[in-house]
Amino acid sequence: MNPIQLRQSIRDMLNEDIGTGDITTESLVESNHQSSAILLAKQPGVIAGLPIIAQVFQELDPFFDFQPAVAEGQQVEVFQTIAVMTGSTKAILTAERVALNLLQRMSGIATLTRQLVDKLDGLSCRVLDTRKTTPGLRQLEKYAVRMGGGTNHRFGLSHGVMLKDNHIAFAGSLERAVEKVREQVGHMVQIEVEADTLEQVAEAVQLPIHALLLDNMDVQTLRKAVAMIDGRVWTEASGGITPETIRSIAETGVDAVSVGYLTHSATALDISLDFVEEGTEIND
Question: Which residues form the Quinolinate phosphoribosyl transferase C-terminal domain (predicted)?
Answer without folding.
Answer: 109-274
